Amino acid sequence: GAAIANAAVWPTLGGNRATAKGSFGGPRDQFSWWLEIPELNSIEKTVHGQVRAHGTARGTYARPSIAGVVEAKKLAVPGIAFDAATLKAEGTLDAHEGDLKARNRDLDLSAKLKGGWSRGAWRGEIVSFENAGERALVLQAPAPLEVGPGRVALGRFNATLVGGRLALESVRWEEGRLSSTGAFAALPAQSVLNFLGEKRVAGNLTLDGDWSILATPKLNGRLALRRAGGDLTLAGPPQVPLELSRATLDARFTDDRVAAALDIATRLATLRAEGEAAGLTPDAAANWTAQVDLQE
């Protein structure tokens, strides 16, 4: 079959540099390569960062085997940015595995994936997934994943999340349609309050909930939240415990319209509120009614 013997190339384009040397195609051949891109923006305007990569290739053209490491710094893609990211991968096109690490101010991610490309799509599983730090998340069992042109499907994803439990049944994105179903249990409300920057309320309240949504892109589906245990305290001075005994929120979405019902019971009072909003933005027209009963 075809082979490359004792080749050496050093192409450059602007500040981007690539180096490759060695042989490929024979049973003992090895082809090594290095790549350096000082600024990804020079290739794709929506992406920023510095990339260095190196690796080796063995095998044949019919079944090449590749091992490589890609390191990125100050990486930014639309919607998210990382201070650093590293990908290590090896294997053949139809059977390979990789380790990914990425971090920024809020996230410290590490993941291991295993799978292969066949019949026009990548099919495999997320073997492990973890985010360290304040928003700790640890995958409890491998999760099936499929990625193809215009399609992403993530199967059952069971994990611990900031001390609670996450049971993601599925996430599917296909031809601009996003759907997801799942549930969570014993999720600390304090982590949500911290994420929102809310400092007027704190406590050990935990939440259970479930959801089923479809975005086409208009949002349809439902979301339910309920108190699992614990309490909230209003910031003082003096601090005032709410002494919650019940808290539920049920929301339904119909083509971006929202209908919701809130039911809260504390030692001091009960609150029942219902309403509708014409959209998902803060300035959308809304109509709400509420009933407050003070406890004697």
Task: Report on the architecture of this protein.
The model has no long low-confidence stretch (mean pLDDT 92). The protein has one helix spanning 189-196, and strands at 4-9, 12-13, 16-24, 31-37, 48-59, 64-77, 80-92, 95-103, 108-118, 121-131, 137-139, 143-148, 151-154, 157-161, 164-174, 177-188, 201-203, 206-215, 219-229, 232-234, 240-241, 246-254, 257-265, 269-277, 286-294. The strands form two sheets. Strands 10-11-14-15-13-12 form a six-stranded antiparallel β-barrel. A three-stranded antiparallel beta sheet has the order 17-20-21, with helices on one face. The chain contains one helix and 25 strands. With 296 residues, the chain is mostly beta strands. Strand 18 (206-215) and strand 19 form a beta hairpin. The protein is elongated.
